[in-house]
Amino acid sequence: MRSMFFPSMSTRPTLPSRLSPSPPRRAVVKALPRSPSNSATLARLVATTFSMYCSRPTKRLP
After folding, report:
1. Which of the listed residues 12, 45, 48, 60 has the most CB atoms within 10 Å of its CB?
2. Low complexity composition bias: which ranges (predicted)?
3. pLDDT score of 9 more than 50
4. pLDDT reported for residue 35
Protein backbone atom coordinates (compact mmCIF):
# COMPACT_ATOMS: atom_id res chain seq x y z
CA MET A 1 0.00 0.00 0.00
CA ARG A 2 2.80 2.41 0.91
CA SER A 3 4.75 1.49 -2.22
CA MET A 4 1.73 2.18 -4.42
CA PHE A 5 1.10 5.57 -2.83
CA PHE A 6 4.64 6.79 -3.48
CA PRO A 7 4.55 6.56 -7.30
CA SER A 8 0.99 7.85 -7.34
CA MET A 9 2.00 11.02 -5.50
CA SER A 10 5.02 11.51 -7.74
CA THR A 11 2.93 11.17 -10.90
CA ARG A 12 0.10 13.32 -9.59
CA PRO A 13 2.02 16.62 -9.19
CA THR A 14 3.70 16.10 -12.57
CA LEU A 15 0.38 16.00 -14.44
CA PRO A 16 -1.28 19.15 -13.05
CA SER A 17 2.07 20.96 -13.00
CA ARG A 18 2.44 20.51 -16.76
CA LEU A 19 -1.20 21.41 -17.52
CA SER A 20 -1.34 24.30 -15.06
CA PRO A 21 1.05 26.59 -16.96
CA SER A 22 -0.63 25.87 -20.31
CA PRO A 23 -4.32 25.07 -19.81
CA PRO A 24 -5.45 26.68 -23.09
CA ARG A 25 -2.97 24.49 -24.96
CA ARG A 26 -4.98 21.39 -24.08
CA ALA A 27 -8.16 22.92 -25.51
CA VAL A 28 -6.34 23.84 -28.72
CA VAL A 29 -4.88 20.35 -29.09
CA LYS A 30 -8.33 18.83 -28.53
CA ALA A 31 -9.95 21.15 -31.07
CA LEU A 32 -7.22 20.56 -33.67
CA PRO A 33 -7.91 16.87 -34.31
CA ARG A 34 -11.65 17.36 -33.84
CA SER A 35 -12.09 20.02 -36.54
CA PRO A 36 -8.88 20.50 -38.57
CA SER A 37 -10.86 21.87 -41.53
CA ASN A 38 -12.66 24.47 -39.43
CA SER A 39 -9.87 27.02 -39.13
CA ALA A 40 -12.37 29.68 -38.05
CA THR A 41 -13.68 27.50 -35.23
CA LEU A 42 -10.18 26.87 -33.92
CA ALA A 43 -9.27 30.56 -34.08
CA ARG A 44 -12.50 31.46 -32.29
CA LEU A 45 -11.84 28.88 -29.57
CA VAL A 46 -8.31 30.16 -29.01
CA ALA A 47 -9.52 33.78 -28.92
CA THR A 48 -12.28 32.93 -26.44
CA THR A 49 -9.90 30.99 -24.20
CA PHE A 50 -7.32 33.78 -24.29
CA SER A 51 -9.98 36.40 -23.58
CA MET A 52 -11.27 34.43 -20.60
CA TYR A 53 -7.80 33.96 -19.12
CA CYS A 54 -6.85 37.58 -19.75
CA SER A 55 -10.16 38.89 -18.42
CA ARG A 56 -9.90 36.90 -15.18
CA PRO A 57 -6.79 38.61 -13.74
CA THR A 58 -7.80 42.01 -15.13
CA LYS A 59 -11.18 41.88 -13.39
CA ARG A 60 -9.57 40.87 -10.10
CA LEU A 61 -7.06 43.73 -10.16
CA PRO A 62 -9.61 46.62 -10.17
Report:
1. 45
2. 10-20
3. no
4. 47
